[in-house]
C-alpha cells in the first residue's frame, strides 16, 4: 500500500493527502463543469489558525491525519508504507494524550489506513494484504460501524487493476461512504456506497462521465468533493458536486489541485502543487463558495530543498463544521507529522450604548393650543407603557402627557397630548420607567435638555436613577464577544459604568438594539460594584456549535437580575435595557 494512491504529474511522482492517486496518462473529455470563483493569489491562512502537531508515539516519524468529525474525533494512521514500515490505522480523541490513540486495523491485514469518521463514530478506510518494496500493493475498501465489526467494501467490477485498488475515503452521518476504484488502464472511478442498503452508485463528471475521478469526501447534505481530470485542460483539478452542480476547483497558477474534504457548509479542503520536479511544492488550502481559496501552511513546515523529497509540503485532508482542519506536513528533517489547525477565536468589539435612544419634538395642538410632543424612541422594554412628564428646573411636574407605549420590538413612535398651555420656560421632558405610579415605575429613564425658545426638537439622554432616587448618570460600556470553535463556547467580557449596583441580567438576542428580537443565548448575570461599575467580568455560553453571524444580533444588559426580568414568560418593568450593543 502506498501513501494512498500515487498521481504522476509531469515527470514527478507526488504522494499527497494520504490519498494514493494512481498515476499514468489521464484521459480528457468535454465537461459541463462550472468554474469556481476566481482568486488571483490565495491568501495565506496560517495567521487565522492555531496549529498543533499530533503524532502517535508508536511512530513519530510518519503520521497523517485524514478525517475529523464534529466531536473532534480524528481518523489517521502512522507508517510510511515502505517495506518494513507498514501503514497502521488509528483513531484519536483530543486532547493529545497518547492514551487517546486507539488502534484500528482491518483483521488479518498487513496495512490499514482509517480515512474518514462520521459523528456516530462509524469509520471507513482501506486495507492491504501486502507491504512490498515497490509500494504497489492491493487495496480494499472497508467500513466499520461504531461498536460493530469490519466489512470489506469493494466496488463490484469485472475490470480491476492488478493488484486491485479500491479505497473508501469519506462517510457522512447517513452512512453513505465515498471512494474510488482503479481499472486495468489505471483510471480512477468514483463511487458512493449506501452502507444501509449495500447499494453502490458511480460518481462522475456529468459532462464527461468517462473522466478519471476520485470521490474523496461527502457531507451530510450529500455533497461530494474529490479529484478529477479536467477534460478542458487535462489538468488534475478538485471538484465539488453539490445542489445539482459540478464545480471545478483549481487554485490559480497551480500545477495540480486536489479536493480531499468537505463540511456541511461546503467548505472544501485539500492540497495544490506549485512547480514541478525538484521545484515542486505542496500547499494546503480551504475553499468556500463565497470566499474562494485560502492557502494553509503549517508554520513548522520544512524549508525547500530537502534531499529526495518535494519539500514545503502541507496537505489539509479533513474539515468539520467548526472549520477545524486536520492533515499533515513535512518538517525540516523530512518527517511527516500530523497536524490539527483550529480557527483562532473570532472576537467582536461591541460598544455598549445606553438605552433608550431617540428624539422628542415640541408642538402645539391645533385644537386646544396646548403642548403636544412627538416621540420617536427605540430601546424600550417590548410592549411596555411609560409615563411622560414635563418638569421644571427643580424637577417639579408641570404636566403629564398621554401614555407612551412601545411595540413588540421596543419601539415607540407617537404624538402625545397634554393639557398645558404653551409658554416660554426652562422645562424638560422625562420618560419614566413605567406607568403604574410605584417608585420603580416613577424612575426616569431618559430626559431632554431644558427647553430653549425657538428650538423644538431635542435628543433624549438616557439616565439611570434607582428606586431611592439616586442618579447614577448615563450608563456606558464596552464588550468583547469571542467565539472559540475549539471550545464550542462564546465568551462575553464587559466593562461598564453608571449602573445601579447589583446584578444585571444579560442576553445575546437576535435583531438589533433598534428593533429587538428573541433571546438566542442566555448569560449569567453581570454584577455592578458599589460604584456602579462592571470591571472586566466574563460570562460564558457553552455548547455553541456555530459561530455568531457577522450581523443580526445584539448584546443587552437589563435593569434587573435574571430572576426579576420576566413573569409568566413576559417582560417585567425590570427587563428595561440599560446598555445595548449591536454585533
Uncertain segments are 2-43, 305-310
Report mean pLDDT, rounded to a whole number: 88
What characteristic shape results from the CA principal axes? elongated
Helix content: under 10%
Please summarize the sheet with the most strands.
Answer: 8 strands, antiparallel
Give the tally of structural domains: 3
Distance between the termini: 51 Å
CATH architecture name of the largest domain: 6 Propeller
Strand order of the largest sheet: 44-43-46-49-29-41-42-45
Give me the count of strands: 49
Query: Count the helices. How many?
Result: 1
* Backbone structural class: mainly beta
> What is the name of the CATH class of the largest domain?
Mainly Beta
- What integer value in Å does the Rg equal? 32 Å
Tell me the strand percentage band.
over 45%
CATH superfamily of the largest domain: TolB, C-terminal domain
CATH topology name of the largest domain:
Neuraminidase
Topology:
Elements (H helix, E strand, L loop, with lengths): L6 E3 L2 E3 L19 E2 L7 E2 L4 E5 L9 E6 L5 E5 L9 E5 L8 E3 L7 E7 L5 E6 L11 E5 L5 E3 L13 E6 L4 E7 L5 E7 L4 E5 L9 E6 L5 E6 L6 E7 L2 E5 L6 E7 L5 E7 L6 E8 L3 E5 L17 E6 L5 E6 L5 E8 L2 E9 L2 E8 L5 E9 L6 E2 L1 E4 L5 E4 L3 E2 L6 E10 L6 E5 L6 H4 L1 E4 L9 E3 L1 E2 L13 E9 L4 E9 L4 E10 L4 E13 L5 E9 L10 E6 L7 E2 L2 E2 L5 E6 L1
Parallel strand pairs: 3-21, 4-25
Antiparallel strand pairs: 1-2, 5-28, 6-7, 7-8, 8-9, 10-11, 11-12, 12-13, 14-15, 15-16, 16-17, 18-19, 19-20, 20-21, 22-23, 23-24, 24-25, 26-27, 27-28, 29-41, 29-49, 30-31, 30-39, 31-36, 32-35, 33-34, 33-37, 37-38, 38-40, 41-42, 42-45, 43-44, 43-46, 46-49, 47-48
